[in-house]
């Protein structure tokens, strides 16, 4: 069932985004007076089509479900013999360069507008997320900077934050730019204070991993209290009861539920001495976790389980925004995502970031399925990010992509003449080769990640 859900989530994510992208081209082409011959969802052989409108534009579904295109009346793609003078005036290459720029740019712009609308809707509704209350590991850069577990971060680099995702986003941008991180913090019982993480602390950070975690920062989790014990479980046999406050395992203190769970998972079949507080009195129990299987990024592994529910959920908040504030936040979010994506692409070319970050349809489908299972809010947020990625990738100056055509037209604006046809043909072949190479790399990375 999860496989079917993943496929459907992928289709409902990518399909509409392709349609909106091509609608951008189509609507602006019509607005500029260019005749549109076909609007296709999918590539390759047409399997279904109908003609509508005064121009009898063909609306089609094609065999390959990835991608789509808008075919306009274009002298470079066929004979114009037999057409009326009125139709010839509507041919694409006869339009002035600014109209051609508008038509080509409209596709990526449509993707950005979709993301803005989705983010604005999510911001107005509010998404339940972990708050910006933090935990800090001892001996890490964040601890050395002066942060304490239980601090509430209210701003990062003068940008207000209320939830963990906003805080994490600011840290990622600082790591990419390699500049210091300035935090405004509320500390219970001590009030407001400022903490600065120097830029030097970010130099060894792996941009492909969890940036805050590498610096010693995490979401604050509640104290490890037993909430429920399943009948016949190792926890029940050991004598654990709801309400027990867990304090340590084999002499190692545990600060939160996650720390306790990790200790249990690491000891399948081995007796552990668990210290706890029950009704204010200290107690030590011997617990033997049973062996079980769990799926991880490294495959299926054997872990310890005691079948008890431990408090492990962080403080969650929902922060709805007024319409204009939500729109402003969504525009900033889309802009920041675009610039961060371009910076990451630049770092791939310079070797600062691994090419394994290039992902393809398998990874997108996997993430689509995961976010769909988490809920509609997460799924819509994922679609917004994919829409931004489509917009950015299409604007790259690679021939055959929108960005390549925009590069031609920009040169035409600067020089006053169009790019020679022969040069354009060579560039198209090179661009197609580069695009196919990127696709092969993406699929290879997907398969490696899957295995």
UniProtKB/TrEMBL annotation:
Topology class, membrane: Multi-pass membrane protein
Every PDZ domain range: 204-291
SUPFAM superfamilies: PDZ domain-like (SSF50156)
Principal place of residence: membrane
EC code(s) of this entry: 3.4.24.-
Tree of life domain: Bacteria
GO CC annotation: membrane
Enzyme class: hydrolase
Subcellular location per the Swiss-Prot or TrEMBL entry: Membrane
Cited InterPro entries: PDZ, PDZ_6, PDZ_sf, Pept_M50_Zn, Peptidase_M50
NCBIfam families linked: RIP metalloprotease RseP (TIGR00054)
Family indicated by similarity: Belongs to the peptidase M50B family.
Stated name of the protein: Zinc metalloprotease
Organism: Duganella lactea
Gene: rseP
